[in-house]
Amino acid sequence: MRVIKDLTDKNLDIISKKLIEGDVVAIPTETVYGLAANALNPSAVSKIFKIKGRPSDNPLIVHISGLDMIKKFAIDVPDIAYKLAEKFWPGPLTIILKKSNIVPDITTGGLGSVALRAPAHESALKIIRSTNLGLAAPSANISGKPSPTTASHCQKDLGSKIDIIVDGGPCNFGIESTVVSLLDKTPCLLRPGVITQDQIKKITGKLEISKNILEKYTSEETLISPGMKYKHYAPDAEVILIKSNLNNFINYINKIQDKNCAVLIFKGEEKNINKPYFILGSKDDFISQSQNLFRILREIDETDFKKIYVRCPEISGVGLAVYNRLIRAANFNIINIDD
Ligand code: TXA
Ligand code: MG
After folding, report:
1. Which of 60, 176, 195, 196 has a 20 to 30 Å separation from 288 between CA atoms?
2. Where residue 306 sits, what CATH number does that domain have?
3. Is the distance from the beta carbon of residue 235 to the nearest atom of ligand 1 less than 6 Å?
């Protein structure tokens, strides 16, 4: 396994060849690292599912260089798709459209739709351009684990199974892209990210919010985004999310006798807490919370803590995205103390 730091012409050539020949490469994006393969090559895409241990009905995002590539992968593209792409690409927004015939079923988990995104990371864009391919790329972690935000996270999860990891430094945002479906008349938010509902609404006017963002999947329902039914972002330690004000949180935590537990709190809240703690970021700085979240969940896995009690973030703006990841990391184990 090679970690490639410098995207020299020679290295870019090695990476492109690998992808064009139908192999996988872990690449950085501005959100999280992705495990990339040619989206139109079923045998290349099948390697992604096998390496990650990903369920075959969970579709992949196809990474493209910009809106000029939309028509290759999607049909019946509404104007609003171009408006969103113009505003937010390259960047952390994924758009779901009707798929074109050339996109194989394995890439879309058998769905008639395809997810498209132009990533903003310079290395990702260079790699896409030099291959001239659409790159299917889920987060480069073992399925169910926290997404990787550094090359060493990828190495830890997948190092024995892949040949190349491109190291583009720590990811700018640290959580995955916002996903919006344009399949129905009213656009629908399927996964929150650093591009917020309000930002999208400014372009689309209306926006529905999928109830799966805040609720647990129950098997009777049909999901528009199959990924939402699976366990996600979970470290080995048990995560318990606590909704309460700071005083109640501290009282609750300090009474716990368990020596194997730690807490995840906001900056400045460490005073008066009698447990080991990790700091997610400032309470009102959602971007630093998203940057830190998966890194900290992975750090906790390096310790002997068996339980981690987490202060609930605010659910507005980018906070919705942080909350969405935390309730899944906690497998919906949420304690409400204030009421
Ligand atoms: O920021 C990101 O989006 C990262 C980087 C690598 O680009 N990728 C990422 O991929 O998070 P992944 O596979 O971990 O998550 C993709 C999500 C899943 O929840 C999947 O179910 C959903 O997008 N998705 C993909 N194609 C879809 C489709 N056609 N319809 C509905 N949901 C789809
Ligand atoms: Mg993922």
Report:
1. 60
2. 3.40.50.11030
3. no
Could you report the per-residue pLDDT of 28-73, keeping only the tens digit for each?
999 999 999 999 999 999 999 999 999 999 999 999 999 999 999 9
| Listed residue (182, 137, 172, 177) closest to 45, CA to CA | 137
Q: Give the CATH number for residue 153.
A: 3.90.870.10
Do 248 and 152 share a structural domain? no
Report pLDDT digits (tens) over 146-186: 999 999 999 999 999 999 999 999 999 999 999 999 999 99
Task: Tell me if residue 46 falls in helix, strand or coil.
Answer: helix
Total domains in the fold of the chain: 2
Helix axis angle, 286-301 relative to 151-158, nearest 10°? 40
Domain membership of residue 221 (yes or no) is no
Q: What six digits make up the tokens of 153?
A: 């996270």
Q: 180: Cβ below 6 Å to ligand 1?
A: no
Q: Which domain range does residue 252 map to?
A: 238-336
Predicted TM-score (pTM) of the model is 0.96
Residues 94 and 139 in one domain: yes
**Closest ligand 1 atom to Cα of 27:** 6
Ligand 1 contact, 324 CB (< 6 A): no
My answer on whether 261 and 159 are in the same domain is: no
**Pocket flag, ligand 1, residue 290 (CB < 6 Å):** no
Q: Which residues surround ligand 2, an ion (CB under 5 A)?
A: 139
Q: Is the CB of 150 under 6 A from ligand 1?
A: no
Cα 160 from Cα 144, distance rounded (Å): 18
Residues 149 and 289 in one domain: no
Are 87 and 172 in contact by the 8 Å Cβ rule? The answer is no
Q: Ligand 1: which residue has its CA nearest to atom 15?
A: 138
- CA-nearest residue for atom 21, ligand 1, is 227
- Claim to verify: residue 155 and residue 18 sit in the same structural domain: yes
Q: Using the atom order of ligand 1, give the atom closest to the CA of residue 140.
A: 6
The token pair at 66 is 């910009």
Ligand 1 in reach of 319 Cβ (< 6 A): no
Token pair of 151, please? 């090359």
